[in-house]
Amino acid sequence: MFTGIIQATGQLTRIEPLGGDLRLTFDVADLAARIDASRLALGESIAVSGACLTVIAFDGRCFSADVSRETLRLTTLGRMALGAVVNLEAALRAGDPLGGHLMSGHVDGVAQVVGLAPDARSLQVEVEVPAELARYIAPKGSVGLDGVSLTVNGVEGRRFSVNLIPHTVAVTAFQALAQGQWLNLEVDQLARYVERGLLHLRP
User: DSSP string spanning 99-156?
Assistant: First the structure.
């Protein structure tokens, strides 16, 4: 589990095609300097721009992860170029503060940035989501974009808006956010459970 509070950013340094999927390597020196090294050990989970990946190797600076075809289909990881900046968060542990909202790191799909506008000192971002995921987005609900926990401000059809405060922009890969960019989307888990429950209540 994760909280959507980004601990550091890193860079994609290696892409290895292997039997139809990929092995990706990320420079996570900033993250490694801020957390206990055991949290980057073999088998640990790291959220990379919102996608939960398992550490298969760590040399003290870079970690590698195998990325399945399903993850490549549902996320932006397979579209990234070398040098791409990613958001990083180590898995939540008992006793850690929960500053954002509970996130699984299981990306539901990708969303596209369709609008960027200044809003006082914040940046208002409008995002368009796939039709099948739009029903899970609600005003004042929670959403994960590239691993960042955000509050939904408004919803209209397949589009919703969020505000990025200066701190969020400064400590995440959102420093380079651009119109047309694709982001990993994780909808609020509660919305899925509510839907599932309602389906079982139907006669």
Answer: -S--B-S---EEEEEEEEEEETTEEEEEEE--HHHHTT--TT-EEEETTEEEE--EEE
